[in-house]
Amino acid sequence: MAIPLVTLTQITKRYGPVTANCEVDFDLRPGEIHALLGENGSGKTTLMSILYGLTRPDSGEIRLGDVVHKWRSPQDAIANGIAMIPQQFRLVPSLTAAENLIMGLKLRGRYGDRLREVENRLNELSSQYGLKVDPSVRIESLSMGERQRIEILRALYHNSRIILMDEPTSVLTPPEVENLYVLLSEMIEREQRSIVLTTHKIREVLAISHRVTVLRRGRKIDTVDAQGLTPSTLVEMMIGARRVATRSKRDQRREDFDIKNPLIEICSLVAGKAASGLSAINDVCLNVCSGEILGIAGIEGNGQSELEAVLAGLLEPTSGHVNFADNESIAYIPSDRNRHGVIPSFTVAENLLLRQLATAPGLGKAPIYQSGVSKRMQELVERYEIYPSDPSMRIRQLSGGNAQKVLLARELSRRPRIVLAAQPTLGLDVAAASFVRNQLLEQAEAGAAIIVISSDLDELMGICDSVAVMYAGEICGVWPAQSEHLPAIGAAMAGLQPCISADLSEEVDRETK
Amino acid sequence: MKQNESTANRGDVTETPKMANKLRNIGIGFLRVFLSILLGLITGVVLLLVFGYEPIPVMIELVRSIVNSRVSLIDTVLQAIPILLISLGVCLSYHGKLWNIGGEGQFYIGAVTATTVALSFPDLSGWILLPVILIAGFVGGATWSCIAGALRAYRNANETVVTLMLNSIATFIVGFAVRVPLREVGSPVEQTARLSSTGQLPRFAGSRIHIGLIVALVLVPVVHYFLFRTSAGYRIRMVGEKPEVSKAAGVPTRKVILMTFLISGGLAGLGGAVHVSGVTHRLLLGISNRFGSTAILVALMARRNPLLAGVIAFVFTALTVGGEGIQVAFGIPSDFIQVFLGILLLFVLAADEFLKRRWEIL
């Protein structure tokens, strides 16, 4: 085997009391796709930004070939043929691809000439790799997949030998993911470029990578060849002793629920404005009973986020209404955690007590200082497996998964009768996601009525009793969450399902009863 | 076995003793103040040299003119009282990320309402009149500030612009008040009549320092407690940090914004009442020696912490008063001190930003 292109030895990086990387070794061979696999907060992104010069390690060394390098900034890394494609793209939406690219270049001569030159070169590269993007179109009119391809073009323009990709598939639709795989393997095979990608999706690792390095809590577990790996070994490596608990769904049928007394009633709801000028939500009717989990599926942008906002009381409906059986007992797990869920600069304990702080008598001692509270907070933190298990940590010091657990602990520990969860496991690793799902199942067991809005159909099929599909602002069908209905649900999500189906008329019958 | 391993990892990776962390943060805090004062001083020296003054004698004179004279010490305290009161309000509203820069206007309106009340009931006993005057000042400032508060809460108008404009309007209102409705009968000067003796705050024996000092000093820990220990204070900070999260959690955000402005302006108005009733004993033009802007400097320098503001208010006022001393001795404009304080603040804010990035603290 060829000598490694890049070697990282004994990399350690601490952020205050949290160790992001602890003595991690890593090497990259020419012409390979090397996956960094790990849960949220396992240190994969940190390791990548150290390699790219964004973060300086506390100790350890970076070697390219035989030469030891100390990056002072990403400029050094770029000059040595390293490119990074971050999760959030660094593109100015109002500029074209070529204009975006030219900003970082030191070029002499007239701007217009240079711009045309860059554009031509990009066109060349684009057709060479079959990227099908036009560098003279403004970024804002491009899809996420196209934006990613612009970022890849930027790496190709700099002729980078090493391309780092942080969660490359998290923003892509399934066909875009396929395209990306093809592109990546082409870049590898044709030109011996090397790619490092971070991910927590096991399927992805097995599909395209040659080797896998698994990180857990900042430490390297192992580097293995992807050939012949099974998903279960990888899961085992990722989460260690904790098993992925996939509780079997309760085998309950709609008829078992107390359908005469729904806890959530949504009646001919119309709300929001879509880009097309029509209402974002159009005439939506849904009922959810005690103990029932209703999933809302659909391709992003079909009115789910507006539905979430209306249910959470953040958006006034244009007409129609939403009735909750108990307005005081609603748990809300928002899709945008940092915007609607937690206050990152507050501590875990303060975030756990947010609702009490919001309503306690103004001049009284804040709930957080009342006696016995700190013990209760400690218990909550431990019960919900929040790590680090210290209620005085600030949320922004926690990983995404643990912040989500804080949110869950606050919302679900009140034993709510109604739960609204939007994208509850988005961006979470396997263990945290299954923890979240189990919590939702437990709440249903305890009699809560639950709406889960998710773009992850597998997740909905796994935990819901029935799945409603939103398309273009309308509910175009409700199906029991059983695998035999998957083709119909998929067709509905794609907009192929006529809006009245046999199941829906059943649903209508049920509602009129 | 694996279970053991993972618990062991949890232990050694994260549990740095809290105490050490705290000490480190305090150390960095001191470093920040020390470094920024040093840099501020260097800049001050350079400025003095540029304008052709000798830095060392100027600085000696600055300190001497503060410490050596009983008059300037008393002046410092008298001016620090309203500055401290205004800056307590500023600290409060800045915790709500409400950039109220209308302390000056709220101070003036508080002074107007307090004077009006005092002149209307000159014969009341001091036990009743004085509290009424202070309340009138608070209400005046609060009302004035609520204009900006309501516009912000219900119409999302930019509070910085609104409070700034309200400042000019307030100055005109004072001008109008001392010229027409409240003008002392037969006085050649534009001023109101003198407050009756029951409407004047009692003084400490043998000095001009009045009990407004006690009021301000008592309010320092009160505001601190309110902000960090009560639920209402928490709500102000919640709305400041994440208005949408707060709303989703059930905070009536508009009411909180309005209340923040109310208290913040009320404290400034109280400053106006205390200053009229304790120092000038009548309303006249220009009773504020840029108290509003100094109060903002104080609050920012104290990083919005009321306890720190209690100390810094006196230090900054002393420097301002000393600035008048060097104006007399060297002919350096007293504005120089304001420039110096502004530069100092810039360094402090820059140091904060630097520390935040470098060590990810604060």
**Radius of gyration of chain A in whole Å, from Cα?**
25 Å
Total individual domains of chain A: 2
Query: How large a portion of the residues of chain B is in β-strands, by DSSP E?
Result: under 5%
Query: Structural class from helices and strands of chain A?
Result: alpha/beta
**Considering DSSP H and I runs of 4 or more, what fraction of the residues of chain B is helical?**
over 70%
Instruction: Name the poorly predicted regions of chain A.
Output: 241-248, 500-513
Biggest interface, chains and residues, is: A-B, 47 and 33 residues
Summed up, the helix count of chain B is 14
Task: Work out the number of β strands of chain A.
Answer: 19
* CATH-level-2 architecture of the largest domain in chain A: 3-Layer(aba) Sandwich
**Adjacency order of strands in the biggest sheet of chain A:** 6-7-8-3-9-10
Say how many strands of chain B there are: 0
Mean pLDDT of chain A, to the nearest integer, reads 82
CA radius of gyration of chain B is 23 Å
Mean pLDDT of chain B: 87
Q: What is the CA-CA span between the terminal residues of chain A?
A: 71 Å
Structure description:
The complex is a heterodimer of chains A (513) and B (362). Chain A is α/β, with parallel strands linked by helices and 513 residues long. Chain A folds into two domains: 6-239, 3-Layer(aba) Sandwich (Rossmann fold); 253-329 and 449-513, P-loop containing nucleotide triphosphate hydrolases (Rossmann fold). Chain A contains 18 helices and 19 strands. In chain A, the strands form four sheets. Chain A has a six-stranded mixed beta sheet with strand order 6-7-8-3-9-10, with helices on both faces. Chain A has a six-stranded mixed beta sheet with strand order 15-16-17-13-18-19, sandwiched between helices. In chain A, α3 (97-103) crosses α4 (111-128), α4 (111-128) crosses α5 (144-157) and α14 runs parallel beside α15. The longest helix of chain A is centred in the N-terminal third of the chain and has 18 residues, at 111-128. The N and C termini of chain A lie far apart (71 Å). By secondary structure, chain B is an all-alpha fold. Chain B has a domain at 81-321. Chain B is globular. In chain B, 46% of the residues are buried. Residues 1-16 of chain B have low confidence and may be disordered. The chains are: A alpha/beta (513), B mainly alpha (362). Chain A binds chain B through residues 15-19, 22, 217-219, 240-242, 312-314, 332, 334, 338-346, 350, 354-355, 357-369, 387-390, 392, and chain B through 2-3, 5-6, 9-10, 13-16, 18, 21, 226, 229-235, 238, 241-242, 244-251, 360-361.
